[in-house]
């Protein structure tokens, strides 16, 4: 018996539960039901180009982009510091990703208590220090903060792994050839860690751009992102066809942008580079 | 020396940023007042009450049951799949892996909606079964991804040696391959379990008829105020995971890094 | 006394995790010489090289470069370059950019960089490979890029850390020759680390044999081979028959209870010594009354010679000769007096904690 048959149960599962559901999204996006049954339509897809949805999409991309950039700025030095500690580094890394094991919703909800304008802990401290209070709940700032908070570990991990993988002798070679610490960082460390940076960017940007929980909680429902639009189609207005079309547009944009990111980094093969 | 100091301060600040909400949560799980801003004295009553609240205990039950079932089934299917995929031709392999990555790479909301449309289309009532299937499906790729790299680093001749020594293919897999990839199977299982435990988006779209997990319960509560018992449950869960991870960490030092590296 | 010493390590001690790797080591490297640090793994040869390169700092003692203490000077401020063990080429840069790395850091004029890189490529026979990526190169080519990348900076000293270890035998021999030629051409100092004695003897002007963080012997390849100072060096450099002996008087040695003539002098009467005889210095003749007789145990064809093993009174000799003996044949061991090397017993060294 050939070992490859062991994959059979999975392959069946994969086709039924991965491929077919995605086909369903296409089906709903391109059909409309009436008395004669389902017929092909482009209405749903055309509707996604309405300015209302394009604005939501634009905002989603903008906030996700800002969050991703800030995550990168915060995570890179952090990963560098952790990698340098050859002994305690891995343990320290563990501390920085541990918060991910606290329930995501609860973690995000906790920021509400921290940020509350009147009684929140942060503002209480700010007031005690005679500093201006933060009034950001319900604004894009709170949403971006929530995204950074939730997705920062996704940026730290791949960068740390990429940095840890760099051969130490390359670092010494850069020194040997006259590069000081700063030039070495610029010319060797950063270029060699690019695969990690790229996966970090994908892993933060992707969930950020599609999130609907964070805007719901920290945006107090006042800021509608594309994720919220999709959620509403399914759970409030029950326009499934249009919801499917929105999901489809989102999915295609994500897959394209990920393709671009991966193309810019030839080392990755398939999706394996994400790891 | 100065540089070292700056590094410490930097690490400290990020740590405060990451842990502030979690510590707040844990502290308020001992708060005698229902307010999530004011301290009303120390109490353990939320811990005592948490299992008596039907809403919370039911969702905790479903959370654990689904996480356990989904991760066990996903580990079995995924392990077999990894062993099979590993020996496939390069082209077939890359096609299968690309499809496998889809649920990992795709937005959770799209995956969730795709499931929902699918279940409705085949006439499966949304509830326990649909949620379980969804969880198994998004868990399998993580199991496969935990095991495949190890398989390719194995000495491929050990399997052939086992055959040469008279073991049947099944026996060779059981006696030679499985023991070698065991740490990765465990990693994959734990990864699947924790992902399942924490999932909200996909569960949200695939559940119905009174079946909820903790995440969904919390989400519905956010509109009318979180019960303090939830803080207590989450603290218990967080500490259990922490202890579990520390035990695994102690058992094999490299494991934490791997588990960390896998967790997306 | 200061005749052109370019690098001096002075009483250097270095430990890692409480393990002493270099023990009060003092070494002079002369200008323009090809000096090889030779020894088994863990003998401290690489650490010595890294101290010169600036990648390690001595715990005690100091490193001098042309009369200046450079113990605390970082690598990027030393006019010394290294060819790393596994080349350490930058995978994100092509051949040209790898070689130009050091020059780019120094912000030299672009056209001058181009000129210098071309010259370096010519020196290592890689003209036309500028645009290749590192992964496209064979081990031998990567080796050449690593050398070019180092010498293009015109260092005063080139450090080479087992640079040929990853290459196959034939390529290794070719590169040995090329490295030697390159060193003469450039007229700079090479400090070379290897555990391969043949490599050391072929290329070097000076060989430094190390063991346990201590220099055993320093000398020309001929000296090291012909006059090893102790049994370790004799054993490490080429194959040797090493046995116990007792010095009876100047020029007379007792081995296995027999008296032999030798040429060494200056030992105390009845001093216990190590006796070393090279396999190629032994002649096997018909057994006879006054000689050390034995029986052939094996005889293996090795290409240029036969490797014959002979058992005499409990000691097994290794002999290289050109005649095929049959196992079981009776022979006698014959050595000329000047091929019997007498050396002081190695003091059983206590490990310094």
Automatic annotation (TrEMBL), chain A:
Keywords: Cell membrane, Membrane, Transmembrane, Transmembrane helix, Transport. It is found in: Cell membrane. Coiled coil: none annotated. The lineage of its organism: Bacteria, Bacillati, Bacillota, Clostridia, Eubacteriales. This is ABC transporter permease. InterPro entries: MetI-like, MetI-like_sf. It is a multi-pass membrane protein. CDD domains: TM_PBP2 (cd06261). The chain crosses the membrane at residues 12-30, 61-83, 90-112, 142-163, 192-218, 238-261. PANTHER family: INNER MEMBRANE ABC TRANSPORTER PERMEASE PROTEIN YDCU-RELATED (PTHR42929:SF1), INNER MEMBRANE ABC TRANSPORTER PERMEASE PROTEIN YDCU-RELATED-RELATED (PTHR42929). One of its GO terms (cellular component) is plasma membrane. GO terms for biological process: transmembrane transport. Residues 57-261 form the ABC transmembrane type-1 domain. Belongs to the binding-protein-dependent transport system permease family. CysTW subfamily.
Automatic annotation (TrEMBL), chain B:
Signal peptide: none annotated. Pfam families: BPD_transp_1. This is ABC transporter permease. It is found in: Cell membrane. Keywords: Cell membrane, Membrane, Transmembrane, Transmembrane helix, Transport. GO terms for cellular component: plasma membrane. The chain crosses the membrane at residues 9-30, 60-83, 95-122, 128-148, 181-205, 230-248. Belongs to the binding-protein-dependent transport system permease family. CysTW subfamily. PANTHER family: PUTRESCINE TRANSPORT SYSTEM PERMEASE PROTEIN POTI. Residues 60-248 form the ABC transmembrane type-1 domain. Coiled coil: none annotated. It comes from the Bacteria. Its main location: membrane. It is a multi-pass membrane protein. InterPro entries: Bact_Polyamine_Transport, MetI-like, MetI-like_sf. GO terms for biological process: transmembrane transport.
From TrEMBL, chain C:
Its EC number is 7.6.2.11. It comes from the Bacteria. The gene is potA. SMART domains: AAA (SM00382). NCBIfam families: MMSYN1_0197, potA. Keywords: ATP-binding, Cell membrane, Membrane, Nucleotide-binding, Translocase, Transport. Residues 7-237 form the ABC transporter domain. Part of the ABC transporter complex PotABCD involved in spermidine/putrescine import. Responsible for energy coupling to the transport system. SUPFAM superfamilies: MOP-like, P-loop containing nucleoside triphosphate hydrolases. One of its GO terms (molecular function) is ATP binding. This is Spermidine/putrescine import ATP-binding protein PotA. Belongs to the ABC transporter superfamily. Spermidine/putrescine importer (TC 3.A.1.11.1) family. GO terms for cellular component: ATP-binding cassette (ABC) transporter complex.
